[in-house]
Amino acid sequence: MSDHKTMTLTLIVWRQKGPKDPGKFETYTAKGITEHHSFLEMLDCVNEDLIYAGKEPIVFDHDCREGICGMCSQVINGAAHGGQDRTTVCQLHMRKFKDGDTIYIEPWRARAFPIIKDLIVDRSALDTIVQAGAYVSCHTGGVPDGNAILIPKPAADEAMDAAECVGCGACVAGCPNGAAMLFTGAKVSQFAVIPQGQAEAATRVKDLVDAMTSCGFGNCTNHYECQVACPKGINVKFIARMNREFIKAQFA
Amino acid sequence: MILDGKCPTGPIEQTWDKHRFDLKLVNPANKRKYNVIVVGTGLAGGAAAASLGELGYNVQAFCYQDSPRRAHSIAAQGGINAAKNYPNDGDSIYRLFYDTIKGGDFRAREADVWRLSQVSNNIIDQCVAQGVPFARDYAGYLDNRSFGGAQVSRTFYARGQTGQQLLLGAYSALSRQIKLGTVKMYNRREMLDLVVVDGVAKGITVRNLLTGELESYAADAVCLATGGYVNVFYLSTNAMGCSVTANWKAHKKGAFFANPCYTQIHPTCIPQAGDYQSKLTLMSESLRNDGRCWVPKRKEDCGKHPNEVPEEDRDYYLERKYPSFGNLAPRDIASRAAKEQCDDGRGVGPGGRGVYLDFATSIKRVGADTIKERYGNLFEMYEKITDEDGYKRPMRMYPAPHYSMGGLWVDYNLMSNIPGLFVLGEANFSVHGANRLGASALMQGLADGYFVIPYTIGGYLAGVKPGVVKTDNPEFKKSADEVDAYNNKLLDINGNKTVFEFMRELGGLMWENCGMARTKESLELNLKKIPALREEFWKNVKVSGKGADLNQQLENAGRTADFLEFAELMCRDAYHRNESCGGHFRSEYQDEGEAQRDDVNYCYVGAWEYKGDKKEPELHKEPLKFDNVHLAVRSYK
User: How large is the C-alpha radius of gyration of chain A?
Assistant: First the structure.
């Protein structure tokens, strides 16, 4: 365990005391980092050093540390989640960096995600979009047998592709317009491709698009940066499906 | 005191239906007069908050994350059990009931397990209606896979992300109620105290994690769905924020803590790579449908590349020891078997703490594409962490703390011994006995949330006058003042060691002396060392920052302080239970490596009562009766 070569890295980290503080970059050194450290474990080490030195540690959102809760959210060297394909920050490992590297670490930056402190942002706008109608309005109990609703495998698979979204907001952070079209498109599509979602399809897409707009998210201009940033590989075809559903809904 | 679980009697098949009829009801027009607090928004809490909101109660829901969608139920991979018998392979409610009782090594209540098995089928229907994308076959029917401890295929799944999909289902139902206004959601709040007024649970004190302010909330009933406590081992498969804090605060206010020594060590997790490590990552039990566990037969082969160890020199130890269940032996048994091979010097990888999980045979049989479709995301996750390709060389695995079967004591109505305090999901102790079978945690969380609490809470509230206690009751201020003083004490120590250092040290003690195997001596050692470590913590911990601010150090310090108290109770429980059962393995009580129960002396639930700081807790017993399943030696051979 101790025979690994270690790295020393220079970190340039966004520090911001609160929502109204202008914020600035601070420089830190990360020492004794091995290729097996995850990116967040590297930050843990830096924070331990800061605490020993009597300074305030860097705060960042994280929880499951296995790439599924969607809580971690950092822009690393300009790329949301650090730029490794289908990877959240917590799953990014230091073997992707080399000794002597300089790493820039910033929070998600988007109008709809105000910064709370350091690398933590407020993503409650994503909850607002879901609350607007990203569900089937069924009551607990009183539903038919699971096999009474047949869903052919291709449809179930497509719904699952859309449902893999972890709600981290990287798509918004990666988008030059700060748009949440990939997030919203995935939600609309998950229900659009299965029978359970049909009854409310028209109202759902309209309500979600309205919520998205009123939360201050931008619009899609086909940069596809969202798909690149997405740690779950959600495909931009779901944006196209949302647009189609939206037009369909005008005639419903 | 002999505890009474208030289980219904009579033929087991009729217990839940009869009980539901016997429960009092709250008239629909009166429901909105009742406030209910739900703490935690995982499968149990999310489902409960949504369902209670649908019924018309005024619900206030709390989570420490930035969104209710992130609770750690989300990380469950493999699946959820139900007794649908869709594959026509002999399943039934009775068989699921039997397997769960046996899987728990005869340390759970029959009536609770029966109810769980009965409502398991409703859960699948409910989730399908919500749009949860379970795996389907080409004709459109639901697909099943197998899990440990069962000889039927009864596990429903959504790729390797079943927990995520079920949680998103509950979250969507919850979101609908938030929009409708029946549920008020409080994110980024951590419960730091239970408020008890005249012996009845009437509210909570929480810390707003963004501002550091303490807030009081009053209600006619409080539901804790706050998960498990295996982060007491520091390294576990739990999320970083999972803690015993909510349960421990309730315990200190009088709620009994049942069977804390029953912890589950999951057999297939990615081995630890270094001391800096913050968590261990689980690889789903479903992998054992197609993966075979082995270690080299000879010590000298352990350093070789696994593909260079010929077939005849491999020991497929689970298939050898448990021919009828093979690689799908239950978790406690598979974990101990892995430890046994490593203790024998035949472990692989760094430090010799690892076994292989090999997919070569299955890839040959069904092709790499099929394996990829079944477990693709797990192979990806494995590669990200280890930089190794699981399709080309066997994965390395080692057991890790995963789940706690113990929890706050509840009766059949899921109410603790404090009237008005309900406990749901992993946070309670009720159905898994001494060992939980795979794919049944999701089942329990959703059963409690969707199909149990909506009925049983009505039975309680029907006898309660709504809205009598409000936050202007002096108990709320007293509670907030106490929490404030406690936090200030933590901030004022300004010592030399960080919170993580203490947590790592405690985790090490628990893993070594109260982990996969425990002895009288190891537990005695911990019962000395833990109080000493706790004392050092309160003298020498360094917590920077302020109380009235976003302060993650303070959050962690509070959780660690609670773990330092809880760990002692866990060891005490393990020490008192002079038998081995399920996940509780006392090395002195074994029959050639298999757990040796003592049904004459220990066939009971051990529920501990807090008696005050530096006072010994008192043990209360609830005897377990088995009228339907015969107490037998649990065999998977």
Answer: 21
